[in-house]
Amino acid sequence: MPDRCADAIALLQPKVGGPGSIAVILGTGLGGVADAVTDAVAIPYADIPGFPRSAVSGHAGRLVIGRLEGRRVILLQGRSHYYETGDAGAMRTPIETLSRLGVSTIVITNAAGAIRKDAQPGNLALISDHINLTGANPLIGDTDDGRFVSMTDAYSPRLRARIKRAATQAGVKLHEGVYCWVSGPSFETPAEIRMMRTLGADLVGMSTVPEVILARRFGIDVAGISVVTNLAAGMEGASPSHGETKTVASTGGIVLKRLLLAFLKGLDDV
């Protein structure tokens, strides 16, 4: 079977160096976090073999390699979504490539709608678990036993504890809750939001879960952070839009950057 990551690894390895980098996937409107990277090298996804081309506004579609708080980081500015191609495994090559480059920790961020009223637009929420309502899975079609991935503690308790500590140190208000993945691209109906609330969801969005499954498949520890960009459909008359998502995410991205810098500063050497 062809090695789908070999060419990407050959391109990126000299720029990444040895193992130990921490990866961050930046969701809609959150790409500005990359502005804080020093010694930065930016590579468009289009120049990396096997990386997806996202056509969603608010996603720059490039890899940024450099340092934050003195630590080596690999930032993915944007992602390919299930709703773009119908392929839940669209981010497989990037995630597997990260693993083979020696990344053992990934922070996955997104813009999300809030299903509970105490999480307001502009707030951050730490993901504790998720619900997959799409029926899709990026590991469908795999043939080896590695496809049977345990999703217990998919969001590392160790990393969650460190992020909570970083939030306290940075003075960042941080909610915590369950993220519900829906396919999109249309937003949810008020009836669907009532169903999700009954199921125990606190946040809703159109990404992240496939990447978490893939990361766990390839042995990467995961933390997930949502920037709340809107109240979900039907809440206080809310009617979400992509424009609202991008606008609020850019503001929330400033707070997210503070949290990520505090998290990286507080990590033990890796």
UniProtKB/TrEMBL annotation:
<dbReference type="InterPro" id="IPR011269">
    <property type="entry name" value="PUNP"/>
</dbReference>
<dbReference type="GO" id="GO:0005737">
    <property type="term" value="C:cytoplasm"/>
</dbReference>
<comment type="function">
    <text>The purine nucleoside phosphorylases catalyze the phosphorolytic breakdown of the N-glycosidic bond in the beta-(deoxy)ribonucleoside molecules, with the formation of the corresponding free purine bases and pentose-1-phosphate.</text>
</comment>
<dbReference type="InterPro" id="IPR035994">
    <property type="entry name" value="Nucleoside_phosphorylase_sf"/>
</dbReference>
<dbReference type="InterPro" id="IPR000845">
    <property type="entry name" value="Nucleoside_phosphorylase_d"/>
</dbReference>
<dbReference type="InterPro" id="IPR011268">
    <property type="entry name" value="Purine_phosphorylase"/>
</dbReference>
<keyword id="KW-0808">Transferase</keyword>
<keyword id="KW-0328">Glycosyltransferase</keyword>
<comment type="subunit">
    <text>Homotrimer.</text>
</comment>
<feature type="domain" description="Nucleoside phosphorylase">
    <location>
        <begin position="22"/>
        <end position="265"/>
    </location>
</feature>
<dbReference type="GO" id="GO:0004731">
    <property type="term" value="F:purine-nucleoside phosphorylase activity"/>
</dbReference>
<dbReference type="Pfam" id="PF01048">
    <property type="entry name" value="PNP_UDP_1"/>
</dbReference>
<dbReference type="GO" id="GO:0009116">
    <property type="term" value="P:nucleoside metabolic process"/>
</dbReference>
<comment type="similarity">
    <text>Belongs to the PNP/MTAP phosphorylase family.</text>
</comment>
<protein>
    <recommendedName>
        <fullName>Purine nucleoside phosphorylase</fullName>
        <ecNumber>2.4.2.1</ecNumber>
    </recommendedName>
</protein>
<comment type="pathway">
    <text>Purine metabolism; purine nucleoside salvage.</text>
</comment>
